[in-house]
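User: quick one
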Amino acid sequence: MNAAAATARRPWVRILLAALAAIVLIVAPLALPAFANQTLVRIGVYAVAVLGLNIVMGYTGQVNLGQIFFVGLGAYVTAYGVNHGWNILLVFVAACAVAGVVGLLVALAAARLGGLAIAMVTIALPIVGVPLAKRLSEFTGGSQGISARFTDAPDWSGLDNDQWQFYIVLVVAAAAFLLARSLVRGKYGRAFAAVRENEAVAASMGISPYRTKVLAFTIASIFGGASGFLYLAAVQYTSPETLSFGHSISLLAAMVIGGAGSIAGSLLGGAYYVFVPQLTNAIDPNLTTVSQGALLLAVLFLLPGGLVSVPRVVRRLTRRTGAGRSTGRRSSAGPVRETSQQTAPAHRPVPDDALEGHEQTERQDGP
Amino acid sequence: MNIRKKPGGVLGIVAVTAALALSLSGCRGDSGGQGGGGSASSPGITDSAITLGITTPLSGATAGPGKCTVAGVSAYFGAANAAGGVKFGDGKTRTVNIKSYDDAYDPQKSLANFQQMVSDNVFAATAGLGTPTNRAFRDAAISQKVPQVLVMTGDPLFSDRKQSPWQLGFVPIYQNEGGAFGKLLAKSGAQHKVAILSQNDDYGKGYVAGFKEAIQGASNISVVGEQTYEATDTSVDAQLTQLASSGADVFFNAMSITPLTIAALQKAQQIGWKPSWFLPSNTSSPTAILEPGGAAAYPGIYSVSFAKAPQSPAFAKDPDVVKFLDELKKYGNYPDMPAFPHCMWSYMVGATLEKAFQNMKEPTRDSFMTALRDIKDLKAPLMLEGTSVNTTVDGQPAVSSVVVQKYNGKGYATAENFG
Amino acid sequence: MGTFIQLVVDGLATGSIYAALALAIVLVNQATGLINFAQGGMAVLSAYLAYASVQLGLPLILAIIIAIVLSFLFGALVERFLIRRFERGDPDTAVVVTIGLLTLVTGICAVLWGYNNLGFPSLFPLTSVEILGAVVSVRSLATAVTIVVIMVVLQLLFLRTKLGLALRAVADNPASAAFSGLPVGRLLMVGWGLAATLGAIAGVLVAPQLTLTPGMLDTALVYALAAVILGGLTSPIGCVVAASAIGVLENLVAVYVPLIGHDLKIAVPFALIFVILIVRPQGLFGRKVVVRV
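Assistant: Done. Structure below.
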C-alpha cells in the first residue's frame, strides 16, 4: 500500500474529495458550453443503464443481454405518462416500477435456469420487444415513435434547457449511484458475490441463489427503467430502435470497458458508450465501424480489467519497475496479494491473471 | 472474499469529472445557434461560405442508401464550388461546405449529431435518411430554430407547416406513391384481385394506406390477401406461400429490402404464382433487383419514380445523367453506379437548395426558409417528365408528383394504363 | 395441406442457413470454451474474399477454396494473437473481445467493399424441384445437404478422432491437457481455424440468397445462438436439429396462429428454448455438465 492510497483512506480526506466532486458537478453546467452539457447528460443516461447491468452481471455474474429492453420500457412509460399529463415524479416512479415488475416476472421464471438459458431469455427481451413495440401502437406510437417534451427549463430557474436537463440527470444518477454503492457494500453485495463465485457454496452458507439472482435482476431492471426515464429526458423521443438488440451488445461492451463489477466503472462505461461514436464521427464519419472496433480491442488489450483499472495498472507498473530483480518472484506471488487488496469484487480469475496466465501458457507452450 | 472499500473509486470519479470538465470546457457564450432570426446573420454562414450538416446512417444495415444521401449533395455542391460557388440572393457568392455525421440509424445518435452540428456552427441540417432519426431531433430543431429541410423520409409530419415550421420533406410521402399505382389500377376497368406484402413500419403502412385510399370505391378491385414482414427477416417465403394461395393477379409490394425483394421475385415464380407486381421506387432497380430476380417471367412489373435511373439504357446517353455520374465520382466519393435512388434524390436536394440560396435575400435562417418554401415548378436535374419540385403547398413535401412506370425488359417506360 | 408442406420445406431451407453458422459456433465452443460473437462476421469476410477472387477472374470453386484456406489462417491467427490473451481471464471480457472483433471485421468489409448489396454467384443452378407437392429450389436443397454432411463430419471428428478428443481436452481443462503432452496453443489455433473454415463454407453457401453485405449474417447469428443453446452447446447434431426446428416452427406459427403473425413469430424460438431448458437444462442433445464443488 503506497502513501497515496493510505492518505485517501482517511475519513476526512474522503469527505473532502466527495464535497469537491459535488461542487464541481453542481457548478460545471453553468460554465460549460451547451454541447458539453448535452454530452454529459447522455453519459448520465447510459451510466445508470450500465450500472444496472453491472449489478446483475458484474457483481452477481448472471449474463444479461436484455438491459436495453428495460431502458426502452422505461422510456415508453415515461412518454406515455408525460403525454397524459401525469405529475413528473409519478412518471419517474412509474417508469422504474413498471420496468421493475417486468424484470421481476422475467427473473422469477428465468432464474431457475442455468447461466446460458438466462442469457437466451434476456436476449429474447429486446428481440421480441421491437416488434411488440411496433404492434402496441396505441401506447407506443408504433414504428414512428413517440415524442414527449418535458425537460424544458422552467422560467423561474433562469437556466437553459441543457443545464436543467443536466440537473435532472445529476439528481437521478447520483441517487442511483449512491444507492448502488450502499447496496453492494452491504449484505446484499456479499450475497451477490457469493452467488457469483459458486452457487452451491452460497447455498450452503444460507444464501438462496435463486432469491439473490431474482433480486439482482429486479434491481437491474429498476435501474434500467430509471435510465429510460433519463433517456426520454435527454432525447425527448423514443421509438422501437431505442431497444434494439445491437444496443444491448453495446451496453455489455461498455460495461466491460468501463470495468465490470465496479461502481465507478459504470460511469466510465457510460462515458465510453456516448463518447466513442462522437469521437469516431470526428475522425471520419465514413469509418465509424472500423474505428469503434479497433478502439474497443485496443482498450481491452491494454486494460483487460477495464478503464477503471487504470490506477491499479499504473500502480503495478510503477511498482514493477521499482522492484527490479525481485519482479520475477513477486509477479507469481502477485495474484495472491492482489486479490486480497482487490477492492472490486474479484472477477472469476483476477484480471491481472490475463497477463500472468499468458506467461504461464507461454511456458507450457514448449516445442 | 474481499469487498473492501475502494479509495480509487472516489478518486476515479473526481478525476474523471475533472478531466471531462477540462476537456469539454470552453466559454459558455453564444456558441451555436440559439435562435436564428433577425437581421444579423445566422450561425453557419459567412460572407464567403455556408455550412450544411447531414446526419444519416453511414454504417449498419441502412448504410447503402445513407451513403447515397451524402454523395448526391456533395457531388452537386462540389461541382458548384469548383465552378466558383453559388450566387446568393444577397449578392454574395459563397462556397457550400457539407459536414456529414454517422448516426447508424439510432435516434439517440442522430440527436447527438444534431447537437454537435449546432455546436459546430452549421447553418442547416438536410438530406438525412430515416423517420426515427429525423423525428428524434425535430423538436430540438424547432425549439432552436435550425432548419431541418429536404429530409429523406416520406413521413407526412415533416411537411406539415403548422407542426413542423422549420422542416420540409423532400421525397413524396409514402401514401402518394402507393396512391399513384392504386389510381392506375382503379381506372383500368378490369376486375383485379390484389395481394399485399408490406414492411411492418411507417414506410410499409404508408404505401398500403395510400393504395387503399386510391382504390376505395373502385368496385373492380378487391384486396384478397395482406401480410407483413420485418426488415430484419431472413426470408419472406412463408408470406409468399400464403399470398399465392389467395389467387391474386396483382401483387402490391411495399418492400425496401433488396435481397428479400429478389428472393420474392424468384420464389413466387417457383411456386407457380405469376401476378403483376408493384414495387416501390427504392427497390425497383433493373440491374440490381429485377434481373437477378428473373422479372421477365411476370406479365408486368410496375413502379413509381420521379428520378431518371442511370442504370437504364434509355438514359445512358442523357446529358443530365452523364454529368451526374461524373460529378458523383469526382466530388461525391462514389465511383460505382448508384445502387440506390437516394443518390439521385440527394443530387436533386442540392439543386433545390441552390435555388433557395439564389432566392434568399438575407443571410439568415428565416430568409432561407421563406425562399425554400417558395419554389414552384423547378425541374431539377434528373427529374422525369411530368415531375417537378414544388415547395409551395402546405402538407406536401418538395416532390409530390410521381410517374407510374412499367418494366420493359431493359428499363422503365411511363405507363399510361395498366396492362 | 400443400401450404403446410411448403411452409415446412421453406422452414427447413431457412433453418439450414442458421445451422451453417451454428455449427461453427459449436466448434469454437468445443475447442476453446468461448462463444464467438464474431463467427458471423468472419464468415462474411470469407465470403467477400471469395467474391474478390471471382472478380479477379478465378472460377468459383477455386475462389471458394482460396477463401477457405485464407479463413483457416485468419482464424488461427486471431486465436493466437487476439483471443489467447483473454482465454484465461474473465469470460465476459472474452465475449466482449469477440464483439470488438465482429465490429472490426464488419468495418473492414465495409471499407473494402462498401455497404451495397453485392451479388454472389451461386454454386448451384437456380432451378427448382418438387418434393411431396412442395416446391424447393435446388440451391436450398443443396445447402441443406451440405450442412448435414458437415454436421456428420463434425460429429465424427469430436467423437471418433484423436484430434477431436484433443480439442475437447484442451477446452475442458487446458492445464491437464498440457500435462498430458498436448500442444495446447497449437490445438487452440487449429480449433479456431477449423471454425473459421466452417464459417467460410456457411458464408459462401448463403451469400447468393442473402446478397453480400457486411451485416449479412447479423440476424442469422442470433438465430444460430438460439439453435446452439437449444440443441446443446456440445452437439453438432443438436444445433442442426434445433435450427431446422426453429425455421419450421416459425413459419408454421406465423401462418396458423394469426395472433402472433409474422411480426411476432421471432418469439417462437425463444419460447421453445425456455420450455425445453426448463425440462432439460443441457439442451436437447447436450451432455449434462456436472461441476464438483
